[in-house]
């Protein structure tokens, strides 16, 4: 209960001063000159002033407010190391029990470091959590904060935090922890496929520098070498990037006896493989309407170096023109098909027929080129069904279908087969979803028999139109019509010739994205997304191995023909191994080499400056002395409520500030000059003055 006196004047203050200041001066003059009755006049004047000022006696009933204390609990992944999680739980329970004894504290428990967002898991941000806990609290009501953490806090200020209350830190873990870690010093984001890429790394140990250590180097999950490194020294590394697109380079070292954790014994670098320009040899057997369609398409691709020859003067054409008067160049057959054939990523025969331009032996070289990993595309026209067909040469060993000798001149819409709807070369072609397809007709199909490989498009009378086949280590494609140029010219609205031709060429050159059977995975936030590309109807579930070694099964659902997808909400940052059938993939969830795992040794250093700046303290939870109270294997300090100016920590205790703030619940008012009491006093004073003046 609080008591006070308040004035509630009956007239305004300016009017009160205007009336009473002159009267007061006159009364004071009378007192100065000792005039008779001046004392009574002065008392009467004071009584009248008191009546007009209306003094009121107030009795307030107030309720004291509680100080807000934040208990910040570190739940980041580094807290799962060793017995830190157990220490944290025991310390949290013990501190809550101690704080519950003090009614003047409002305790707010905030757990930080286990958000679903990947960015919140890469760093331990306890001060951001602390700011959120005090966001709606006036500064005068902040009693202090207690952090339970391993000390690896990444947003700790260099000085005092933005509140004037004690900050205390209770450190999990143990003194003299031992750990060794590896990290990339320099890791380029891009590299040329098939070319060495220079990188640097470093092995760091709490045991000091100079010791030798073996480092395992893996690319896309396959170990490629074992390097010998010196602890503490920057080491050079050269790796060859095997694939276009995403590549994962991983470094690993063995766990030492007594080492705190092996979670940071691995380092990851993501390298995007870029192909050098692909070399394509295009041989057109004769000038025709579709010749420039292939040429324009390949020339427009910046990643393709095109060598194009058109046979304008076959050997049998003898018209008597002297050689020195011809503007044509001789076809460099030996240079292209013997000396430099291995330099080409793709050979295209566009309406080519055997007319002794190529020696018969060279077809054997081309077949051998395909068997050893080369790519061959036959864009067939009527000549493929004739007597000079290249199917009648030794090249037939590499061809997926033999001609029947029939050329079907009949209008038709090119359509996808059932396999074609799932095959990555033809799946989802623009216009293929409607019936008839939303593209123009073609008018010629070359008949073949006993097709091998996969028929992904069909022509007139459901005859094979596009064949894709594997021969040894290489690939062969056969387009059994020379009418694709109708799409390029916009006939009847045209069609997706660029999309189709480019996919065919890139599939032949083994572009990973166009593989029929492919398993990929990627981390988006804390979500692992899996994508399975297949020609089967059901690839089955995917098996996932988490960074901690836990096995998880993920069901794959059909997203579209030939595509199955699945996702897994993860709780760990690191490298995940995904398997489905014979296929495997790697994916990294969360930022690469996050600070949360770069240094996992528990420390008091990072929180010492902000704690000392507020008068708080930093101490370890692991028992190391007889001071304090033991609770479940951890040493907890006693809690002492302190005033704002008092010390806030001692050897075995921590102080939390109490507040003087309160809320008003009720007020009792008693007017001192109100009612008959005020009237009586006023009349008594005036009557006494009148009586004295009357004498």
TrEMBL record:
PANTHER family: BLL2462 PROTEIN. SUPFAM superfamilies: Class I glutamine amidotransferase-like. InterPro entries: Class_I_gatase-like. This is Glutamine amidotransferase domain-containing protein. It comes from the Bacteria. Keywords: Membrane, Transmembrane, Transmembrane helix. The chain crosses the membrane at residues 12-33, 40-58, 672-691. Gene3D superfamilies: 3.40.50.880. The keyword Cytoplasm does not apply.
């Amino acid at each position: 209960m609080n008591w006070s006196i308040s004035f509630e004047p009956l007239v305004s203050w300016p009017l009160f001063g205007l009336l009473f200041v002159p009267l007061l001066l006159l009364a004071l003059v009378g007192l100065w000159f000792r005039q008779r009755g001046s004392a009574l006049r002065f008392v009467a004047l004071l009584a009248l002033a008191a009546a007009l000022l209306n003094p009121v006696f107030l009795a307030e009933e107030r309720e004291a407010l509680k100080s807000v204390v934040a208990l910040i609990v570190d739940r980041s992944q580094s807290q799962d190391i060793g017995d830190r999680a157990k220490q944290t739980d025991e310390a949290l329970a013990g501190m809550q029990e101690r704080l519950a004894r003090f009614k003047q504290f409002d305790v707010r428990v905030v757990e930080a470091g286990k958000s679903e967002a990947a960015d919140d898991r890469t760093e331990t941000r306890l001060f951001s959590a602390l700011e959120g806990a005090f966001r709606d609290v006036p500064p005068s009501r902040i009693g202090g904060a207690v952090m339970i953490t391993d000390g690896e806090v990444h947003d700790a200020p260099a000085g005092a935090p933005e509140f004037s209350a004690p900050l205390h830190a209770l450190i999990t873990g143990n003194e003299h922890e031992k750990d060794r870690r590896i990290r990339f010093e320099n890791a380029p984001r891009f590299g040329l496929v098939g070319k060495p890429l220079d990188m640097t790394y470093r092995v760091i140990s709490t045991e000091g520098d100079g010791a030798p250590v073996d480092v395992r180097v893996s690319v896309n999950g396959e170990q490629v070498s074992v390097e010998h490194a010196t602890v503490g020294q920057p080491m050079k590394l050269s790796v060859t990037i095997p694939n276009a697109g995403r590549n994962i380079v991983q470094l690993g070292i063995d766990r030492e006896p007594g080492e705190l954790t092996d979670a940071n014994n691995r380092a990851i670098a993501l390298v995007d493989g870029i192909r050098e320009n692909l070399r394509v040899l295009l041989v057109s057997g004769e000038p025709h309407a579709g010749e420039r369609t292939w040429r324009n398409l390949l020339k427009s691709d910046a990643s393709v170096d095109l060598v194009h020859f058109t046979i304008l003067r076959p050997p049998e054409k003898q018209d008597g023109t002297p050689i020195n008067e011809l503007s044509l160049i001789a076809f460099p057959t030996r240079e292209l098909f013997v000396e430099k054939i291995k330099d080409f990523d793709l050979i295209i025969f566009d309406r080519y027929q055997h007319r002794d331009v190529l020696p018969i032996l060279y077809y054997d070289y081309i077949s051998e080129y395909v068997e050893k990993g080369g790519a061959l595309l036959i864009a067939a026209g009527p000549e493929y069904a004739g007597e000079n067909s290249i199917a009648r040469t030794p090249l037939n060993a590499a061809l997926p279908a033999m001609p029947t000798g029939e050329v079907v001149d009949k209008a038709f819409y090119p359509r996808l087969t059932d396999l074609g709807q799932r095959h990555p070369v033809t799946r989802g072609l623009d216009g293929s979803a409607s019936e008839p397809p939303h593209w123009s007709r073609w008018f010629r199909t070359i008949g073949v028999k006993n097709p091998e490989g996969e028929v992904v498009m069909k022509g007139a009378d459901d005859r094979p139109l596009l064949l894709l086949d594997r021969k040894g280590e290489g690939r062969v494609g056969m387009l059994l019509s020379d009418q694709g140029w109708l799409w390029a010219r916009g006939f009847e609205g045209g069609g997706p010739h660029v999309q189709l031709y480019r996919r065919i060429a890139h599939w032949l050159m083994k572009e990973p994205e166009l593989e029929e059977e492919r398993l990929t995975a990627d981390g988006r936030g804390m979500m692992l997304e899996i994508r399975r590309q297949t020609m089967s109807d059901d690839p089955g579930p995917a098996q996932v191995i988490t960074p901690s070694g836990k096995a998880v099964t993920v069901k794959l659902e059909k997203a579209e023909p030939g595509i199955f997808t699945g996702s897994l909400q993860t709780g760990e940052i690191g490298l995940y191994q995904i398997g489905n059938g014979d296929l495997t993939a790697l994916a990294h969830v969360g930022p690469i080499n996050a600070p949360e795992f770069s240094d996992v040794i528990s420390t008091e250093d990072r929180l010492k400056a902000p704690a000392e700046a507020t008068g708080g303290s930093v101490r370890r939870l692991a028992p190391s002395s007889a001071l304090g109270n033991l609770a479940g294997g951890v040493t907890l300090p006693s809690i002492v409520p302190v005033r704002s100016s008092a010390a806030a920590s001692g050897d075995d205790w921590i102080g939390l500030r109490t507040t003087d703030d309160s809320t008003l619940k009720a007020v009792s008012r008693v007017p001192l000059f109100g009612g008959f009491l005020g009237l009586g006093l006023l009349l008594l004073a005036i009557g006494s003055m009148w009586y004295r003046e009357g004498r």
